[in-house]
Amino acid sequence: MASVLLPVSLLLGGLLLVPQLFGDFFAYQIGLYLIYGIAAQGIGFLWGRTGILPLGQALFFGVAAYATAHALRDVDGLAAQLGLAVLVLGGIVAVAFAIAALIFRGRSDSGPYFSLITLALVMAGEQIANTATGLTGGFNGLSGYDSLGGLDPFGNFYYLVVAAVVAVSALLLWLDRLPAVLIARAVADNEPRLQLLGFPTHVIKALAFAFSALIAALAGGLFASHQGIVTPTSIGFALSTELVILTAVGGRFHVFGPLLGAVLVGLASAELRDSFPYWEICLALAFVLVVLKAPGGLGEILGRLYHRILPRKPCKLPEPVQAPVSRAGEAPAPLRFDDVELRVGVVRILNGVRFETPASGIVGVIGPNGAGKTSLLNTITGNLPPTGGRILLGDRRAVGLPPHRALGLGIGRKLQVPSVFFSMSVAENLAIAMMAGRARWRDYLRPSPLGWRAPGLDAVLDTPAVPLRAELDRPVGALPQGHRQFLEFAMTTAAEPRVLLLDEPCAGLSHDETTLMTDLVRRFQADTGGLVIMIEHDMAIVEALSDKVLVLHQGRVLAFDSYDAVRADPAVQAVYAGGTK
Amino acid sequence: MSSVLVLNLVWQVGTLALIALGLAIVFGQLRIMNMAHGEFVMIGAYAPVITAALGLPGWLQLPVCVITVGAVALLIERTVIRHLYGRMFDSLLATWGISILLREAVELIFGRGYQSVAVPVPGTLYLLGADYPAYRVVVIAGIAAGFAALAWWNARSKVAGRIKAMVGNPDLARAIGINTGRLSAASFVFGCTTAGLAGLILAPTVRIEPMMGLDYLIRSFFALVVGGLGSLEGLGLGTAIIAGTQSLFGAALSQTHGYLAVLFISILFLWLKPNGIRSSSR
Amino acid sequence: MSGLLAIDTLTGGYHDTNVVFDVSVQVAPGQVLGLFGRNGVGKTTLARLVQGGLRPATGDIRLGGRSVTGLAAYERRALGLGYMPQTGMVFDDMSVRDNLYLGENRCPPDAYFDRFPRLAERLDQKAGSMSGGERKILAFVRTMIEDTGLLVLDEPSEGVQPENIDHMADCLKERARDGAGIILIEQNMTFLTQVADSYLGLDAGRVCLRGDAGEVTDGQIKAALAI
What we know:
The complex is a heterotrimer of chains A (581), B (282) and C (227).
Chain A: H1 2-22, H2 24-50, H3 57-74, H4 78-104, H5 111-131, H6 133-136, E1 142-143, H7 157-176, H8 179-189, H9 191-196, H10 201-227, E2 229-230, H11 237-250, H12 257-272, H13 279-293, H14 297-309, E3 321-322, E4 335-344, E5 347-356, E6 361-366, H15 373-381, E7 388-393, E8 396-397, H16 406-409, E9 411-414, H17 426-435, E10 452-453, H18 455-462, H19 481-494, E11 499-503, H20 511-528, E12 531-535, H21 539-545, E13 548-553, E14 556-561, H22 563-568, H23 570-575
Parallel strand pairs in A: 3-10, 6-12, 6-13, 9-11, 11-12
Antiparallel strand pairs in A: 1-2, 4-5, 4-7, 7-8, 13-14
Chain B: H1 3-29, H2 37-54, H3 61-79, H4 88-110, E1 124-127, E2 130-133, H5 134-156, H6 159-168, H7 170-175, H8 180-202, H9 213-227, H10 232-252, H11 255-272
Antiparallel strand pairs in B: 1-2
Helix pairs in contact in B: 1-5, 1-8, 1-9, 1-10, 2-3, 2-4, 2-8, 2-9, 3-8, 9-10, 9-11, 10-11
Chain C: E1 5-14, E2 17-27, E3 32-36, H1 43-51, E4 56-63, E5 66-67, H2 73-78, E6 81-84, H3 96-101, H4 117-121, H5 132-145, E7 150-154, H6 162-177, E8 181-185, H7 189-195, E9 198-203, E10 206-212, H8 218-225
Parallel strand pairs in C: 3-8, 3-9, 6-7, 7-8
Antiparallel strand pairs in C: 1-2, 1-4, 4-5, 9-10
């Protein structure tokens, strides 16, 4: 906890000294910059962690500001005002969550478009604020109300702003150490992988967006009380982009970055705007330079300087803790395809695929390039919903579900090209995988799941030739391709799925690494007693591992039998000539 | 509906299409979310102001416009944009900074006040039963001819494919022999220059001021959102829907309603058809 | 020096981290050099240094007697260097046809369609919607038809079914017979030994084994690949 308490107390101490050292008017000015800083912290959280850039945060800021102005003017009593504030904040959170969840549902690529939607929303808000004179006072705005609780905006209201800054900062610092933010960062890193690990990414993104909206709204409420007037500029396009600029300049990856940006830019503007005609140009130039040369902003530059003076402590790996039982590993069940068809545009990829696997064992899938092998796996995990037919796992239908529901059915999948979280360490990758199918809501808000371990994962890590144990604190981006294959295998099996789908797990591996991988696959199947479906080109591997072999050709099942029987099948021989590495 | 309204609509669609064309290349092809696109419209609109201030003859407006806008665009591409290919969010932020920079620079040179310039082709033409400004008729014809020529060239040239290849996989594009530095600079400058030309065309019909670009940026972005990126037909459809919606709602109710209707349609498209009207369901 | 490609004490890698050290090798017209080694020893890095995607720290690369060390990848392509990358080897959001016709070709792709008929069937499909093996085949054919005299291929057989690997071997032998120099990086040693007439083994970024097909034994190759 020291890493939260120490910086927060320093911040609190520094801010409390401001009125004493510089006087009340200066504190009033700083108060305004801090209010913008709070809203920018919300942007920093969303943009720096999940990678979603909100261009319309002033919408939430402005709506809350107008609501506060109305409450202060028309509602009597602090309790009633605060009750109304909670109601408004709740409403804003609900609306923000609903918008984002709707837009993000069913896709993993609407980042830039989402930014444009937020931009369009804030522009609509500004138009309405300008024209709905009865509600907003139009161009002149709402004014002539007292500050919240009768505090003096030029005096003791400053301490309320400081309290809000400290509370938001402490909350954000605390979150940064928890699985919740690790998962949020995983969304920005590799969303399809996170979905295959069973996480509903559209809900995660919507939650993060709603949280940042809440922070913006909180700042908007303070703003209305602090300024004593709310005009359409408080809900405008210009304020939205200014908040983004403050966040970028200050640094979106650090909790204090946006605060720093808001205060520094605010002070410099107040000082220079009138005396120095080129000030706006200089500010714009500085902003462009930050984007180009220092994407982490001032926060990262200062952080680097700080760590040059005080070297960073080697990052401590979390305590290993026994993990709860995975919910993905129910009793093994056979997988059945009933006349499954898949068309993409005019191309027919699967043409009535029909087979039923045993509940347990290893099924090798072979077939010429383009036979539909990877597409077959895509229909099972919901990445490509079939255009006809049924897929059953035991007695449960596995069709029409989005990819993040596959793990809940007990289906784990390793992709063809290793798909892991490239910006994170091996330990963080494994932590996310261990939470898959195990974590419940409250687990995301406590640190212990970061160290979860289970016998299955330990068995993989303890295998002597598997290179991961020594690389736990290394960033995955620095690992060679082969090591990433083992990491992704360890991540996919961590949830102990009853059906494991492997897409060419030995691609790009040397001969010895291939032997190691086949050993791991065989052992996983023996330990769990589940089903493994593996696409493989190398017939030696297929022969060594498979209990049954499924031969696909032009989107149809050509044969499904033991290796020897398939090998002897003249139809198979006609289209498929075997060979080994 | 009166014929003047129809001709006005054609004028709106034509000029917006020219602005959106530049953005379609820069945003749609190069994947640079150019928030300074409207500022190139603005600089183009200042070209007649420049020639007038320097006492140059009127026919120099076109070369002055192309050279000024092209030089600014090339400078920005070489210093800023070329670091931003493949970084869409960063391109948005940096070009937002550039747009502020350009507005402030123009304001320092020409002042904040409105400027206006004379129509180069005076008089009216009798068209479809109404008198209509000859200048607008000439411009509409010119834009139509320009788009036809572009469509003809696009169908024969490998350039569109090469740009797509460069943006999708720059390493591989260089490996098969594409000079990506030159191609991207040329595309960016071309896109910005069409916006500047649109500014020059619009100059006699609007109030020229440093802030004028923002509205054109937003509307051309939404035209691309509605029409989808990557085809000239989509561009035409998108601009027709955006300009048409704004004109009709604007004429029937008020400017604000026209504006809100455009926003509403854009949000609907972004949500339900993020690849534009011509894309089949995903 | 009559060689097509001459690499002289080449050292280089990513940013300031060198991955390849002091590699010297020459490739003559008609020669197929098999480049092999375990994962992460610098094969792809060496290929990209030769191709121009990465700039070497020290050393010299000569193509047809002319130093290309300071030239960009597209300039080396114009001098006749063809390259098939290990990943990102096709333009995913373009059709198979556009992938094949984008560059300057020495012959139309039809010449390869009887060996790889799937490509002809899928000309209008997006390359990104094809399977991994099909994309490798597409990139391979693209590299074959380009008007180049030196080919660098980084693991073309990964994910490709054995029958098509045999076709690839035939294509490579044909190009070599017609005078092209080829550098072939492979994990699949059956394929590599089928076409290579000389070998270069890398370990930790340095040459650990070199020689003609006759001189290098299976045991030496196995030793170079052992973990």
